[in-house]
Amino acid sequence: MPPTPCSLCQTARALVKRPKTGQQVCKSCFFEVFETEVHNTIIEGNGLFKRGEKVAIGASGGKDSTVLAHVLSTLNQRYDYGLDLYLLSIDEGITGYRDDSLETVKQNQVEYGLPLKILSYDDLYGWTMDKIVSQVGRKNNCTFCGVFRRQALDRGAAQLGVDHIVTGHNADDIAETVLMNIMRGDIARLGRCTAVTTEGEDTIKRSKPFKYAYEKEIVMYAYFKKLTYFSTECIYSPDAYRGHARVFLKDLESIRPSAIIDIIHSGESFVLQEGVQRGMKAMQTCKRCGYISSNDLCKACALLQGLEAGLDRSALRQTQDSTTLAPDGQRTIPKYDRHATAFELSTPPKIELHATEGIERAVKAIAL
Amino acid sequence: MSCGNEPDVAPDGGQSGGEALMPRRRQVRRVDRAICQKCKTAKSKYIMHSATFCPACFESTLNVRFLRTLFPALRPPHSKVKDLSRPPLQKGNALIGLSGGAGSVAMLDLLMRFGLIGRGTGARADLTKGEKEVVWDWATVVHVRFEEDVEKETELQRVVEGWGLQWMLLKAEDVFDSGLRQRLGGTQDDGPELGVDLHYHDLPLTELSSSSSLTPREKLLSLLTALPPASRPAMLQSILDHLLTFTAATLPNISHLLLGETATRQAQRVISGTALGRGWALPLDLAAKRSTSGDVVQLKPMRDIGSKETAILCRLRELASWNERRWFLGPEGKEKGKGGSGTRSIEGLTERFIAGLSVSHPSTVSTINRTGDKLVFPGETGSIASCPLCESPLEPSALDWKSRTALTSLSASTVTVPKNRKGDGKGLGLANMLCYACLTTLSRSPIAKHSPSLLGQGSVPLPLWVSAHVGRGTIEQYLIGQDEDEE
Amino acid sequence: MSVVATEMPSTSGLGYSHSNAPEQVASSIRQDDQLEIRIEFGGGLHLLFSQKPKYTIHIPRTIPSTSQHTNVKYLIQWMKENILSEREEMFIDGDTVRPGILVLINDADWELEGELDYELQNRDEVVFISTLHGG
């Protein structure tokens, strides 16, 4: 059988079957449509970025953020967005997972020549995830991690002096979140989870340039571009309920590959009853650390207080109506200053590049 | 993302975790089990929303839920009447959709036991003797056959005629039968019969020659066969919806179309509608009350009752029901096998997903429906164009959105025009007229085999209502030259 | 162990054969080490059981090669091996029934009776009703 020609350029040999469209395309056409789709997401409407904007890429060392760093650097040059890009990493303190993946981020720093900032839970909160899990157990530890990471990213961005964080959330993540929010009746989040950018009052803008990019295509892109990334899943068990949604989504995708993007289309079309979207309380700042909060205490301070008091899972229910001062002897989070400009960036070190096992794993993950 | 947890976290952290909003099943405590939690005397037999009921309290609870859904929809606007008092006699008759599933079987039984429907004699109740006035003078009960099931149809007809109602049997393939309108008493003529070529993205239309010797059944099979298996249920759903609304609008003197969709089915619609890309028009699909063509009002009085409850209700009332839908899903053959039946469609997967989740989280259905109830239709019904296939209002620019987020060509200048087609620029196919979800239904995977259809050319026949909708006046511009097709 | 259909099959039984049931006897003379259980199907489930809506079966009082009293879990296993005639996945999920199938034991929701662990008594009636459409 002769090789199948690319259905886009009709000349080169097709190497990739695009999950999103079902088309069989060659390597260079795949790069082109993948990057152009991201570019389309960026320029849609009023555009995601302003010229000259400082933008931090939330970099975990995983496939999504690694490919995002690569694609965003590429597009920034190709289309002259005029962006000032940074890498921002959070060290949650998970032995055998984050310590290794941060090595990957450091390699990315060299490869793309982007300045890197790393913030650790340990420095910020005095607790690593390893320590948190040993106290609260595996169930619900993701709640601590999610709350702490969100605030850590904002603090890192403030320290870098950027107003905009981009994350590697892909189409699969967003479709899954749409389903999750429907299934648990979370109207407020259902209304905003498909937005490409979320920006609250006085919060740092967050965007998802990969909102239409399929996870499978991100893996293929990394594979064909031979990008270095770390592909281990977090060792602490994920939310079981979310697991149901993910399995369901994969089942849907297997019988109709466009289902992922179709769900996002539905999510974007939803209009929610007036009133329910204003479910969020008015925002104020945390009386203890100054971070944005809808209560006296921000969630992170409340969780931290629970941890410091030696509580197990019940730390999750720590009240957010509290006094300004933490109980004696407990650690607190340093004051948050949105507009601080304290700079201490590591310059790209000269380390030898070597392909990590991430690529070998990626190869196995791709079914051509 | 390697960690999927973050997108849910609000600036504030929020109350994350599904468990908080969707409680797990609680083991009913032993002291609670034995007796009914409503009357507190009789032995309990059923569990509904974590509470236990004896058969009598179970039935009365469901009765109230049924009437509380149905009655307010039948009162004049701004009526301040109490929920459970009887609404006035309606101006027309009812058309009842009866699939034979527990939802519609239980609905028919409830309607008749409450004496809401008369025998079409026009006799009025003598209120002085404590008689209650009917709500509809008469009803026609329509069953749509997808696959023949004599046992089921005979039993349904017996029940319907036993209540003194009119029985009507329609077939799915009637949407290809130009005689249907006349059979229902309509007069207007359908337009020319169109076919569509599913092999091209823009879905070019062709006019089918009237000499086509295919029977309506063969046309239906030809259309279904050409669709990917995952798309067939959506097409069949459109056919069912159309037959019901068309019948309601065409039969003389019908004011209401009553459907037995349960809360469980409703929750499935929320999820599968989302997965099919129907988000925009979804609030209309979910509405308890919706105006359809010909000033008919469509009602779903069972939408607050779950499928488990309707199954128990049928059992209590000794009513036969057939939940297993045996829709013809096209040729089974080689495609069969993977995961068993019901798992090759979005709808089947959704049903399985919700049923599975409901075992550990009994509030799954009600939570999903709470979400669904808060969705608002963003357009204005009536004032905008509708999709020729599903007949729902048409959202703006489905095709644009699709072509921007999933590129299928390198750029406009390099668009490859299929060889055997001339002169078809953009905008001349059915694709441009469809809503996002129906466009997805008719999209084939580009590498799917180029199977010759029964018509001997690339086109498959479209249901007559689609042809009629596309419209005589505009048809010329959508057709590609007939001679080009005959090669 | 025997199977007696209380209604004539509309088609020939596929999942078992009468001639293979040596002690096919009237229920009145069942043996003491057996339980007589009535099974009924609703909502179209009978299509998976040789199209017969009702069965009266005799199964051991204790689960074979154990001393455990026969429970619903064993009954489901027994049904799968003896009377389920087609599309197993439409009825069975692991060692229980597929989610969406309602089970009534003596007309009460099985959730009230201990589900799989319910110990079957002589002349119990177990009803399986599908609430699923398929599709």
Automatic annotation (TrEMBL), chain A:
Residues 54-233 form the tRNA(Ile)-lysidine/2-thiocytidine synthase N-terminal domain. Residues 284-310 form the Cytoplasmic tRNA 2-thiolation protein 1 C-terminal domain. The keyword tRNA processing applies. Pathway: tRNA modification; 5-methoxycarbonylmethyl-2-thiouridine-tRNA biosynthesis. Its EC number is 2.7.7.-. It is found in: Cytoplasm. One of its GO terms (cellular component) is mitochondrion. It is an enzyme of class 2 (transferase). SUPFAM superfamilies: Adenine nucleotide alpha hydrolases-like (SSF52402). GO terms for biological process: protein urmylation; tRNA wobble position uridine thiolation. InterPro entries: CTU1-like_ATP-bd, CTU1_C, Ncs6/Tuc1/Ctu1, Rossmann-like_a/b/a_fold, TilS/TtcA_N, tRNA_thiolation_TtcA_Ctu1. Keywords: ATP-binding, Cytoplasm, Nucleotide-binding, RNA-binding, Transferase, tRNA processing, tRNA-binding. ATP binds at residues 58-60, 64, 90, 168, 173. The keyword Ribosomal protein does not apply. One of its GO terms (molecular function) is ATP binding. Plays a central role in 2-thiolation of mcm(5)S(2)U at tRNA wobble positions of tRNA(Lys), tRNA(Glu) and tRNA(Gln). Directly binds tRNAs and probably acts by catalyzing adenylation of tRNAs, an intermediate required for 2-thiolation. It is unclear whether it acts as a sulfurtransferase that transfers sulfur from thiocarboxylated URM1 onto the uridine of tRNAs at wobble position. Prior mcm(5) tRNA modification by the elongator complex is required for 2-thiolation. May also be involved in protein urmylation. This is Cytoplasmic tRNA 2-thiolation protein 1.
Automatic annotation (TrEMBL), chain B:
InterPro entries: CTU2, Rossmann-like_a/b/a_fold. Pathway: tRNA modification; 5-methoxycarbonylmethyl-2-thiouridine-tRNA biosynthesis. The keyword tRNA processing applies. GO terms for biological process: protein urmylation; tRNA wobble position uridine thiolation. GO terms for cellular component: cytosol. Its main location: cytoplasm. It is found in: Cytoplasm. Coiled coil: none annotated. Keywords: Cytoplasm, tRNA processing. GO terms for molecular function: nucleotidyltransferase activity; sulfurtransferase activity; tRNA binding. SUPFAM superfamilies: Adenine nucleotide alpha hydrolases-like (SSF52402). Residues 1-26 are annotated as: Disordered. HAMAP family: CTU2. Belongs to the CTU2/NCS2 family. Plays a central role in 2-thiolation of mcm(5)S(2)U at tRNA wobble positions of tRNA(Lys), tRNA(Glu) and tRNA(Gln). May act by forming a heterodimer with NCS6 that ligates sulfur from thiocarboxylated URM1 onto the uridine of tRNAs at wobble position. Prior mcm(5) tRNA modification by the elongator complex is required for 2-thiolation. May also be involved in protein urmylation. PANTHER family: CYTOPLASMIC TRNA 2-THIOLATION PROTEIN 2 (PTHR20882). This is Cytoplasmic tRNA 2-thiolation protein 2.
From TrEMBL, chain C:
Its main location: cytoplasm. Pathway: tRNA modification; 5-methoxycarbonylmethyl-2-thiouridine-tRNA biosynthesis. C-terminal thiocarboxylation occurs in 2 steps, it is first acyl-adenylated (-COAMP) via the hesA/moeB/thiF part of UBA4, then thiocarboxylated (-COSH) via the rhodanese domain of UBA4. One of its GO terms (cellular component) is cytosol. There is a cross-link at residue 135 (Glycyl lysine isopeptide (Gly-Lys) (interchain with K-? in acceptor proteins)). It is found in: Cytoplasm. The modification 1-thioglycine is found at residue 135. Residues 1-20 are annotated as: Disordered. Keywords: Cytoplasm, Isopeptide bond, tRNA processing, Ubl conjugation pathway. One of its GO terms (biological process) is protein urmylation. Residues 8-20 have a biased composition (Polar residues). Acts as a sulfur carrier required for 2-thiolation of mcm(5)S(2)U at tRNA wobble positions of cytosolic tRNA(Lys), tRNA(Glu) and tRNA(Gln). Serves as sulfur donor in tRNA 2-thiolation reaction by being thiocarboxylated (-COSH) at its C-terminus by the MOCS3 homolog UBA4. The sulfur is then transferred to tRNA to form 2-thiolation of mcm(5)S(2)U. Prior mcm(5) tRNA modification by the elongator complex is required for 2-thiolation. Also acts as a ubiquitin-like protein (UBL) that is covalently conjugated via an isopeptide bond to lysine residues of target proteins such as AHP1. Belongs to the URM1 family. PANTHER family: RURM1 PROTEIN (PTHR14986). This is Ubiquitin-related modifier 1. It comes from Naematelia encephala. The gene is URM1.
